[in-house]
Amino acid sequence: MTTVVDTPQWLATLRADGHALPQSPLAWLNERRAQALERANALSVPTTRDEEWRFTDLAPLRQFSLQRPPAARTITEADIALFNLPEAGARMVFVDGQFAPSLSHGVGALIGTSGGTSTGTSVSTLTDGLKSHGALLQQHLGVHAGFEQQVFPALNTAWLHGNNGALVVLGRNAVLEQPLHVLFVATQANIALCPRVLVVAESGAQGKLIEDYVSLTNGAYLANAVCEVSIAGNAEVHHVRLQRESLAATHIATTAVSLAKDARYRSQSVALGARLSRVNLDIRQAGEGADVELDGLALIGGEQVADTHSSVDHAFAHGRCRQMHKTIVGGAAHAVFNGKVLVREGAQLTNSAQQSRNLLVSPRARVDTKPQLEIFADDVKCAHGATVGQLDAEHLFYLKSRGLPEQQARNLLTYAFGAEVIQRIPVKSLVNRLQQTVLARVDAK
Amino acid sequence: MKNTNAKTLLEARGLTATVAGVEILKGINLTVRAGEVHAIMGPNGSGKSTLSKVLAGHPAYAVTGGKVLLDGADLFALSAEERARAGLFLGFQYPVEIPGVSNSGFLRLAYNTVQGARGKDELDPLEFDDYVREKMKLLEMDEGFLDRSVNDGFSGGEKKRNEILQMAILEPKLAILDETDSGLDIDALRIVAGGVNALLTPDNACVLVTHYQRLLNYITPDYVHVMESGRIIKTGGRELALELETRGYDWVVEETRNATEVSA
Questions:
Q1: Number of CB pairs < 8 Å for A and B?
Q2: Cβ of residue B113 closer than 8 Å to a chain A Cβ
Q3: Distance from chain centroid for Cα B174
Q4: Does B166 contact A at CB distance below 8 Å?
Q5: Interatomic CA distance for residues B249 and B41, integer angstroms
Q6: Closest-CA residue in chain B for A397?
Q7: Is B170 an 8 Å CB contact of chain A?
Q8: What is the pTM of this model?
Q9: What's the ipTM?
Q10: Cβ separation of B81 and A394 shorter than 8 Å?
Q11: What are the pLDDT tens digits along chain B (264 aa)?
């Protein structure tokens, strides 16, 4: 028996746009896009009957008429001043899916030291990257974020045209002290965006990336983001992912990270915005001794839904992963966490620890959290824990006994709960900004 | 003896209180005047800590009877935060840890809330920095302490010093120090006691709730009260503490029981 499901308008639009893209001079890219489009056409939108989407209902997307952005609106530096990070060594700004050179700086330049590699160290659009780093992109682009089974990365890949994405290449042994800021700005309602980021860190390289989604509209739109990170032997990437989309937006993200031998990946993922957000985080260990730290924080209220599905695949021995996912849920909001940890047969001496900590600040708030451990090696250390709770009465009393009013005491403790994640972000100005945001947001609840 | 004409800062009459429906305080009478130091001693479970929490307004305890005046005002008409602003301070036996909130930020917030309520000017971060550093010398605290999160990862001694630092900053009329001495080594005890002594004036008062006489070698009490089963069963001078140290509590309990039987 077959079930006939009518295709939502937004999906039909995205598929049609994939078809309409002009061909690239690069045959491999055309082929990869065609494969992705074929999958995007074949796959349907997940529903709550799919185990992976049980708690996150995409049906409300149907009510929106989403189009490819008609034209990038012109915005000025002042419009995005709030998102500026003075520490950033380079900034790439994308407005409604189009690269905005006038708002960007440090782009294309060789930054840091390149340690005698042919690829050098650069930040560029994927369009320029396809010209300068064709072979490298062929090796990585659309390879780490699989699109065989998932309609969103398939659509994003089918949509690849280069000007909607950033390429960061860290050459061999290059050490970048200053963080790179990739800022995706949405300015219009009823649009569909497919932002894309590829980070390739060659052996021994080290760098920091801030992947940042913001909005200048209160309207509803769809951002379907894909970020791929490839970390070669003994290299290190510190990746901060910041989602502060419009409170009416839908944000679907796929982050795929591949770590070679002794590679290190540190990440803080903070979700503040979007009516509905879903992050699929896929970490794959492709060599021994990879070291991963994953911190997540969702601060939501109203009718927001924030869903994180992570998967850590320990495929080789001596891997280490520390994961801490926190949520602060107010109003009638709903936070979802599913943390899969796979330890394959050969992955002996893996040390993997996962924590899910959830704070409910209103009686109607809801959390669904699920650890999912699959262990096939016999000499490993794997731990997981989950808590769901409210503010501690003893802590509140302590602050009130120092004269703080009830609400202020609650705000401070709520902030403190999230601070553990925020304070691990390696950019001071961003930590300060987020502290203020969290305190103000908590205040408003 | 102390000046009995001094202002009464705390007056408790027939105070009873319960926690989870169980009566813990069974009629406390206590008068604390300005310039006095009181020690409340007693075996574990006698209700000492409950008394300090009830006075500070802990939500887990229900006051079921009696009356308490703080500087002439009805204490139980005030919320916990209003009591703090009215000049009551509780030094916690187990100060809570608040990761992510800097100690300097927290101390300034508390200062501005409490001192602001008394009509003093609020201090900006720079002004407060000068103010707090002066107070920190009293407790021999190093400067790095200000940048750390509130009590987060502090040793027992550091937490207690932080409590006394808060007392120094908030300048309460009546400080209740709940087991401030427990868990301290002799050096930390000396510093904490030195801090408390330096803060005592003829206009304020201090109630030391303690299990051990050792603290009273460093802070001299004017009155020593023995608590047992939710009542103050004996009151004496500092010599009572020494007697308790050598003889324990049983004889006081015995003496009270006999006295009750005689009168009955």
A1: 77
A2: yes
A3: 8
A4: yes
A5: 9
A6: B58
A7: yes
A8: 0.85
A9: 0.95
A10: no
A11: 567 789 999 999 999 999 999 999 999 999 999 999 999 999 888 999 999 999 999 999 999 999 999 999 999 999 999 999 999 999 999 999 988 888 998 999 999 999 888 898 999 989 999 999 999 999 999 888 898 999 999 998 899 999 999 999 999 999 999 999 988 899 999 999 999 999 999 999 999 999 888 999 999 999 999 999 999 999 999 999 989 888 888 888 888 888 877 665
Domain ranges of chain A: 9-287, 393-445
Rounded to whole angstroms, the Cα distance separating A44 from A49 reads 12
Task: List CB contacts (< 8 A) between A406 and chain B.
Answer: 79, 81
Residue B81 and residue A406: Cβ atoms within 8 Å? yes
Residue in chain B closest to A395 (alpha carbons) equals B96
Contact A403 B56 (CB under 8 A): no
CB < 8 Å to B56, chain A: 397, 401
Min distance B167 CA to chain A CA atoms (Å): 9
| Count of other CB atoms within 10 angstroms of residue B35 | 18
What domains sit in chain B, N to C, each tagged with a CATH number? 8-96+172-263 (3.40.50.300)
List pLDDT tens digits, range A22-63: 888 899 999 999 999 999 999 999 999 999 999 999 988 888
E-assigned strand segments in chain B: 8-19, 22-33, 37-41, 61-70, 73-74, 88-91, 98-102, 149-150, 174-178, 205-209, 223-228, 231-236
Task: Answer whether B80 sits within 8 Å of A415, measured CB to CB.
Answer: no
Given the structure tokens 């069963």, which residue do they identify?
B233
| Cα distance between residue A245 and residue A103, in whole Å | 19
3-state DSSP call for residue A192? Answer: strand
Please state, in angstroms and rounded to a whole number, the distance separating the CA atoms of residues A365 and B118.
39
- The distance of A419 to chain B (nearest Cα, Å) reads 5
- A356 forms beta bridges with A325, A386
CA distance A420 to A328: 13
The answer to whether A217 and A188 have CB atoms below 8 angstroms apart is yes
| β-bridge mates for residue A267, sequence order | A239, A294
Cβ separation of B101 and A418 shorter than 8 Å?
Answer: no
Chain-chain contact of B96 with A403 (C-beta, under 8 angstroms)? no
**Cβ–Cβ < 8 Å for A243, A215:** no
**Using the beta-carbon criterion (under 8 Å), do B56 and A422 form an inter-chain contact?**
no
Q: Residue B117 and residue A401: Cβ atoms within 8 Å?
A: no
Q: Please check whether residue B147 touches A, CB under 8 A.
A: no
Can you say whether the dihedral through the CA atoms of A403, A407, A413, A419 is positive or negative?
negative
With vertex at residue B174, the alpha carbon angle to CA B171 and CA B175, rounded to the nearest 5 degrees, is 80
